[in-house]
């Protein structure tokens, strides 16, 4: 056995360097933890007199206009708006650029609600049906001197090689950072055609008495996008609004009154979970805050829904939820574990391409991994690489009042491909049945920076390793 004196000069320094490199390798073998450090600004909601919250001029003018898909296949649209003083006109006038023939909607539902000391305006939901695919429509809400005109483009016919670009935003809120995120999304060069919104909308419940005026201001804030483009809604924990201390016992009351979705068209019993087809994608929305164990309505619905997906028609299978099933931040750590145990085997069995969540106020993308081998007796509780498994994306980084989640677990888990504590948005650009390009854009000094990207290879048609 040699002594210290037998080492060559400088070898102790070399040994230290090698040891440090070994430690670094252990810390980094999971993937990339971004070195970018965002300047921390106070997360505060923009004041009510901000121009992004401006009410449209005129007595009882329609406001908070928003649209979403109105049926299962994309040939209908739900148009929603609020009139503050009286119901007003409950019809939508619309026409396509192809024909210019004016039509009028039917079957508008007008509702309102009370929440503690707040009474909402008159909330209108109108479904326009039998629309032509891939067509630009103009529509008008209101009447007389307070008419307001908008437009939207219907999705193309459902088909296996139909290209389509989705945007991804979660946990948006209505702070100055929220405004930056939405602006960057609107400027994205890929020009997303519809937005997958991962829950947590207004953050009204972060204000005293769940100030529902913040639901109104948020609706006016996002109108500049959602009045022209379908947003596919997911309910988050900030939509629950359960507050027994002020006498509010009905979960999701403001959200369910304001945001209509086509849940009945996918045989769901609740608007909190449903599915839609759009271009070459089949999108399943789940509720992290509704019962999902065996025998519950959501469990039974998903069990019956997944086998219905025809990958020859819609090759891309996308699942949306609010609470992530995999998360390497110290915020909301393992909150999605019980849902993972219940649903992950089905995701692997049916070769789901990607599961997208919010909730954690940061960004993360995993490799294709699963933990379905584990049970309570075998101790195999380590996620393994699985080519049939989804990629899990966490994108709860819209810019809300609660700020960033910047405390990560260390070392970075092996399943984590990229993570960064910054605000931003992403796009999922489907090219054909085999390939989709994905990119996450960081908010950085007034511009959007593409900080993480990957080519997704379809699990059903081209199940090879994705390229980062």
Query: Roughly what is the average pLDDT, rounded to an integer?
Result: 91
Alpha plus pi helix count: 6
In helices, the fraction of residues equals 10-25%
Into which percentage range does the β-strand content fall? 25-35%
Report the radius of gyration as a whole number of Å.
24 Å
**Unreliable runs:** 1-28
Q: How many β-strand runs? A: 26
- Estimate the global geometry from the Cα principal axes: globular
* Largest sheet descriptor: 8 strands, mixed
Distance between the termini: 47 Å
- Strand order, largest beta sheet: 1-23-19-22-18-17-16-15
What structural class results from the helix and strand content?
alpha+beta
Features:
468 residues; alpha+beta; 8-stranded mixed β-sheet; 6-stranded mixed β-sheet; 27% strand; disordered N terminus; Purple_acid_Pase-like_N; glycoprotein; Purple acid phosphatase; hydrolase
Q: What would your notes on this structure say?
A:
It comes from Rhodamnia argentea. Residues 1-30 form the signal peptide. There is one protein chain. This protein is an alpha+beta fold and 468 residues long. The chain is 15% helix and 27% strand. It has an 8-stranded mixed β-sheet with strand order 1-23-19-22-18-17-16-15, with no helix packed on it. A hairpin with a 2-residue loop joins strand 7 and strand 8. It is globular, with a radius of gyration of 24 Å. Mean pLDDT is 91; it is low at 1-28.
């Amino acid at each position: 056995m040699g002594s210290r004196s037998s080492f060559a000069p400088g070898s102790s320094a070399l040994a230290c360097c090698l040891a440090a490199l070994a430690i670094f390798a252990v810390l980094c073998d999971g993937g990339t933890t971004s070195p970018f450090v965002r300047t921390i600004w106070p997360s505060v909601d923009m004041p009510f007199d901000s121009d992004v919250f401006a009410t449209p001029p005129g007595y009882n003018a329609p406001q908070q206009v928003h649209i979403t898909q109105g049926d299962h296949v994309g040939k209908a649209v739900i148009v929603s708006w609020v009139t503050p003083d009286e119901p007003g006109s409950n019809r939508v006038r619309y026409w396509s650029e192809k024909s210019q023939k004016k039509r009028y909607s039917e079957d508008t539902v007008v509702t309102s609600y009370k929440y503690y000391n707040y009474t909402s305006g008159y909330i209108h939901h109108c479904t326009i049906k039998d629309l032509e695919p891939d067509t630009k429509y103009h529509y008008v809400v209101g009447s007389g001197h307070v008419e307001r005109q908008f437009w939207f483009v219907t999705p193309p016919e459902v088909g296996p090689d139909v290209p389509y670009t989705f945007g991804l935003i979660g946990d948006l809120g209505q702070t100055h950072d929220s405004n930056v995120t939405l602006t960057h999304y609107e400027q994205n060069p890929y020009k997303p055609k519809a937005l997958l919104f991962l829950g947590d909308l207004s953050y009204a419940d972060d204000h005293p008495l769940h100030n529902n005026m913040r639901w109104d201001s948020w609706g006016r804030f996002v109108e500049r996008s959602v009045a022209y483009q379908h947003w596919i809604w997911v309910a988050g924990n900030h939509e629950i609004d359960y507050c027994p201390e002020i006498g509010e016992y009905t979960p999701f009351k403001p959200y369910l009154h304001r945001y209509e979705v086509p849940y009945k068209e996918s045989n769901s019993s609740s608007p909190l979970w449903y599915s839609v087809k759009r271009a070459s994608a089949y999108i399943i929305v789940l509720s992290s805050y509704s019962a999902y164990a065996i025998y519950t309505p959501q469990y039974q619905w998903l069990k019956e829904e997944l086998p219905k997906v025809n990958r020859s028609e819609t090759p891309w299978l996308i699942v949306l939820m609010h609470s992530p099933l995999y998360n390497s931040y110290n915020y909301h750590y393992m909150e999605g574990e019980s849902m993972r145990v219940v649903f992950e085997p089905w995701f692997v069995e049916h070769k789901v391409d990607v599961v997208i969540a919010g909730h954690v106020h940061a960004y993360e993308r995993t490799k294709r991994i699963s933990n379905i081998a584990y049970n309570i007796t075998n101790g195999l509780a380590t996620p393994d690489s699985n080519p049939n498994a989804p990629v899990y994306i966490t994108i709860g980084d819209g810019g809300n009042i609660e700020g960033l989640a910047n405390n990560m677990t260390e070392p970075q888990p092996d399943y984590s491909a990229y993570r960064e504590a910054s605000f931003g948005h992403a796009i999922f650009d489907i090219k054909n049945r085999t390939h989709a390009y994905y990119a996450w854009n960081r908010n950085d000094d007034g511009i959007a920076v593409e900080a993480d990207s990957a080519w997704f290879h379809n699990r059903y048609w081209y199940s090879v390793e994705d390229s980062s």
